[in-house]
Design goal:
Chain B: It is found in: Nucleus, Nuclear pore complex. The complex is a heterodimer. By secondary structure, chain A is an all-beta fold. Chain A is built from 2 helices and 30 strands.
């Protein structure tokens, strides 16, 4: 059973990315309207817009949070060929009764790219504060803030050329002595007949990032790529959004040649491939423990996949956009209460129905075929209207 | 090819429909869904076709977890206690291990019963939507209790010879207590007039008979006004002489069967000679107890469920039925009653058939894994799971996957997270890794929670998480301008950079205001100051400052000299340090030896670059040094 709460994001164009902070209590959104907005969860499930600013002079593609150990820090990347790091600070002069206003300041503007910067991600926190960007001209850049208490200083540490236009990147979150730093990059190039996913590894010996693998089984453009959080496994799981959903296991092999070269050799295995979206897949997102993958595709659905106890991946749930808006016009009048809950039209006690699922309010939530999907029931559907003026 | 268990939910939003959607995971069981249409760098950066008048919304979709309802809090916490005890017992493997497991099963059931009773009380008070929710919970947990009880009889309890009929009857009586209550009322003598005149008299008698309550039936019959008539006495005789099978009664199954057959033939002959025909209900009862098909057809409508009939029917026709034979009989009962199979029925049938299907059915119950986790854990330890799996390894994995899932669910909740961790602890090897991911993400809104998170981390040897949490708390304090607090957290985080950064802040504040903040904290630093060089300097400087204030100038001078010699002095602090040295140099009493003064002079020479901005200080310092040096040299020449 699901319930949904709506937050009017107030962007003037499509949202390109939504990112949640480490705890899931703050939300950053970015859009083609060139703005970035930050929302805070105050109290129970109530989200308030706390900051909104024009971050770039082009569409903002991605927004991402740094680990809270580095403070309240965001990075964005844009069509305007730049990436930026933002920090939230509290004003020095607290007003009477409150602790000063919070606002976001641009700590740095990374202008090395000559083309649209397509993705930006902070590295695992044990590496200090590192930031990777990739751009349409196929260059991956690794920046570092040497003093984590001073975010205005960033140095470009590495530039890796990938030849193909890059669309997405992901840091491998599992970092122990056994696993050197690793980045996976996807390309959305649709001309070259080559693999579109590249794995790079930082070689301690040569102090350079080296390409250790090209996944040749993926020749179609790749739109999103994401390493799963590691649950103490000896292998890495990579989700790839391309013409379908692919889940790939990367297992490091220890043999003589890999010991000599100091570079990891990977055994690449596609463990799952889902064509459920029936067309292009745009995004892939792992939950905190890496047990459920949510992908979004051109079919207008978010699909969730889960691994069962014998390690095989299965589709579990589908969310689908639907035009039938609940009649919220009548509801808008009482919007001041901010969480107006519609009263259920049908009252019926719970019972078990034939298909074996619970029936509540006469709405059967457990559905067999997807051709008769059900709405998230209006009564659980809380419309929270955020007032822009309140901030 | 769609999986039949695949669920589809619709997000009612126009833009989500026309543009498409994308989702990003939040924490726990929540996902943020937003209208999304892929536009990439190769297209023109212009306002999209979706800008017109439709607002973009983000939808936070979350899996509804019934266990998070406050009314079920007791169930969740108490069952965790049982779960943990069970794990301890299993690790120690005592000899009466099986006995223990059965005890645990009973404990789990009593927790369910307690919450059911609690729910029943609450449902009376509740209104509207809440009432409906509670009624829904009652339905769920009633089924859970019913299934658990049956599983306990079939798989957990160690029944000699697998002769289960007594237990089955108990199970049925427990879940259909209607007749027993009525009988108790009738026998209590509170009803006025003759019992048989009440219209539910015979219904109750037969109901009790069906539940195998022979003694109660006899008692009820003896209250009948015609109890002294021959046919009543005869019926009583028959019921009294009915043999019952019990392992501890020292009768073998064969012997029992022999007696049973004798009794049957005897009773049948009495029925055939129409001894009971004058009282039709008595006649019916006698026909029932000898298992006459026609008679059973007459009464089966009195049973609410097929399993009620099953237990009754088996008691009178197959009293020595074995637990593993139940499936076939159950099917016969179901077809006899023409039951439409609901979920509960299917689970019970699967349980009786001893079918692996039961796991799947239980999983589909909507209490978010509470039931399946605890029951499967118990069944795993009873070595029942492996009978359903191809190998032992798989059954362990299956048990782990349920415990893992359940632990994960709880760990994502703002107040139940600690319970979740306890489950994950018993889920090797993924459990600890999941804790590593989940524990640092527990939202911390006050310091006591931070302490609890740190405690949980240290309990599991995850000191890096404890450090990280402390660092984040330190940053928070710093943001709120609580420097002393920030320093305390920085020390806990063992992050020397952070400690240095804060020490600098303290010193800068002193340079600006002449006041050293949080002096009481600094006086207790002790060995903690070893965390960073800058912190050592701060600590030592505080000691100097204190001595100076207490007018212990000689000690202060010593401390100052060692401070200067330590070379830890930050650049911005030199001028402050030297101007304080000046007061000591110019003191009436001679405080610094010639050696000390030379050291001081050396330091000044080395740090000229720091002093050049304060050029009025430099000549003063040099003068002070020169004067002190002359005094010291004279003194030393005289007395040594």
């Amino acid at each position: 059973m699901f319930e949904a709460a709506e937050i009017n994001a107030e962007h003037k164009d499509l949202i390109h990315d939504v990112a949640y902070d480490f705890y899931g209590n703050r939300m950053a959104t970015c859009s083609s309207d060139q703005y970035v907005k930050v929302w805070d969860q105050i109290g129970n499930e109530k989200w308030t817009l706390t900051s909104s600013w024009k971050a770039h002079s082009g569409s903002v593609w991605k927004v991402t949070w740094a680990h809270p150990e580095f403070g309240q820090v965001l990075a964005t990347c844009s069509f305007d060929r730049t990436a930026a790091v933002w920090e939230e600070i509290i004003g020095e002069t607290p007003g009477p009764g409150e602790r000063g206003t919070r606002h976001w300041v641009r700590r740095t503007n990374l202008v090395d790219s000559r083309t649209s910067v397509t993705d930006v991600k902070f590295g695992p926190k044990c590496l200090g504060l590192q930031l990777a960007t990739c751009s349409a001209d196929g260059i991956i850049r690794i920046y570092e803030a040497p003093d984590v208490m001073n975010l205005s200083q960033w140095t470009l540490q590495h530039e890796i050329t990938c030849k193909l236009s890059c669309s997405c990147l992901s840091w491998n979150p599992s970092l122990t002595n056994n696993h050197p730093q690793m980045i996976a990059v996807g390309s959305d190039d649709n001309t070259a007949q080559t693999g579109k996913v590249f794995i790079f590894e930082y070689s301690e010996n040569s102090r350079r990032w080296m390409k250790i693998e090209t996944i040749i089984t993926i020749m179609e453009p790749v739109h999103d790529i994401s390493f799963a959080p590691n649950l103490g496994r000896s292998y890495h799981i990579l989700a790839v959004a391309t013409k379908d959903v692919k889940i790939i296991n990367l297992t490091p092999i220890k043999d003589n040649s890999s010991i000599q070269s100091g570079l990891t050799k990977l055994d690449v295995q596609t463990v799952a491939q889902f064509t459920d979206h029936t067309c292009t897949v745009w995004r892939a997102s792992w939950n905190v423990t890496g047990t459920v993958l949510a992908t979004s595709g051109d079919d207008g659905c978010v699909r969730m996949f889960k691994m069962n106890y014998i390690n095989s991946w299965k589709p579990v749930t589908v969310l689908k956009g639907d035009g039938a808006v609940i009649p919220n016009d009548a509801h808008r009048g009482s919007i001041a209460s901010s969480t107006g809950v519609l009263t259920p039209p049908i009252t019926q006690t719970a019972s078990y129905n034939d298909s074996g699922s619970m029936v509540r309010n006469g709405v059967n939530y457990t559905l067999k075929p997807t051709n008769c999907p059900q709405h998230i029931p209006p009564r659980l559907f809380k419309r929270i209207r955020q007032s822009f003026n309140s901030i | 090819m769609e999986d039949e268990n695949l669920k589809t939910f619709l997000i009612p939003n126009d833009l989500c429909k026309s543009a498409g959607i994308a989702g990003t995971w939040m924490s726990g069981n929540k996902i943020g869904v937003f209208p999304y249409h892929n536009i990439n760098h190769s297209s023109k950066d212009a306002p999209s076709q979706y800008t017109k008048n439709v607002p973009s919304s983000v939808f936070h979709v979350k899996h509804e977890v019934v266990l998070f309802h406050p009314i079920l809090r007791r169930l969740v916490t108490e069952s965790m206690g049982i779960f943990l005890n069970l794990q301890t017992v299993v690790e120690n493997k005592p000899s009466d291990y099986k006995q223990h497991l059965q005890q645990f099963s009973v404990q789990y059931r009593s927790v369910i019963r307690a919450s059911l009773e609690n729910l029943r009380d609450e449902v009376l008070r509740a209104t509207g939507e809440e009432r409906e929710t509670l009624q829904n919970f009652i339905t769920i947990f009633y089924s859970v209790e019913c299934i658990w009880h049956l599983c306990e009889i079939l798989y957990i309890e160690n029944i000699p010879g697998h002769v289960v009929i007594k237990h089955l009857l108990e199970w049925v009586r427990f879940h259909f207590p209607k007749y027993e209550r009525k009988a108790a009322f009738l026998l209590s003598g509170e009803s006025i007039g003759s019992l048989e005149s009440r219209q539910d008299y015979w219904e109750t008698v037969i109901g009790c008979l069906l539940q195998g309550r022979v003694e109660v039936v006899r008692a009820l019959l003896s209250c009948h006004s015609a109890a002294n008539s021959t046919h009543f006495k005869l019926a009583d005789q028959i019921l009294k002489s009915m043999p019952t099978y019990g392992v501890y009664e020292g009768v073998s199954v064969q012997e029992f069967n022999l007696r049973w057959k004798h009794w049957l033939v005897d009773t049948q002959s009495k029925i055939d000679s129409k001894l009971f025909i004058s009282e039709k209900n008595l006649h019916l009862m006698m026909r029932l107890i000898v298992g006459e098909e026609m008679a059973w057809s007459e009464v089966q409508s009195q049973c609410e469920a097929w399993y009620e009939l099953l237990a009754a029917w088996l008691f009178y026709t197959e009293p020595t039925v074995k637990s593993f034979e139940l499936g076939a009989f159950a099917k016969r009962c179901i077809s006899r009653m023409g039951t439409r199979m609901h979920h509960l029925d299917r689970v019970l049938l699967a349980a009786m058939e001893g079918d692996v299907q039961i796991i799947k059915e239980i999983q589909h119950m909507t209490e978010n894994g509470w039931f399946v986790t605890h029951l499967m854990d118990l069944l795993y330890h009873c070595e029942q799971l492996e009978k359903w799996q191809t190998d032992k390894e798989d059954s362990l994995k299956l048990r782990h996957s349920f415990v893992f899932e359940y632990g994960n669910t709880l760990a994502g909740h703002k107040s139940l997270w600690q319970l979740g961790l306890n489950y994950l602890d018993h889920c090797f090897p993924d459990g600890l890794a999941a804790i590593e991911l989940l524990l640092p993400r527990v939202p911390i809104n006050d310091e006591s929670k931070a302490h609890r998170v740190i405690q949980e981390a240290q309990k599991r040897g995850l000191s890096h998480i404890a450090h990280s949490v402390a660092k984040i708390e330190g940053l928070k304090s710093l943001r709120n301008d609580r420097m002393g607090n920030a320093l305390v957290w920085a020390l806990r985080s063992q992050d020397s950079n952070f400690a240095s950064f804060l020490a600098d802040k303290f010193l800068k504040k002193y340079v600006d205001t002449g006041i050293l903040p949080n002096v009481d904290l600094l006086s207790y630093l002790g060995s903690c100051m070893m965390a960073s060089d800058r912190l050592i300097f701060l600590g030592k400087y505080y000691q100097f400052n204190k001595l100076h204030k207490d007018k212990s100038y000689r000690e202060a001078a010593k401390a100052l000299v060692s401070l200067i010699a330590s070379k830890f002095t930050p650049k911005f602090f030199w001028s402050t340090l030297l101007s304080e040295a000046l007061t000591l140099l110019e003191c009436d009493e001679l405080l610094l030896s010639s050696n000390d003064v030379f050291n001081l002079l050396n330091a000044v020479e080395e740090r000229l670059d720091c002093l050049c901005e304060l050029d009025e200080l430099e000549p003063l310092i040099r003068l002070g040094i020169a004067r002190n040096l002359s005094r010291a040299l004279t003194y030393e020449a005289q007395y040594t």
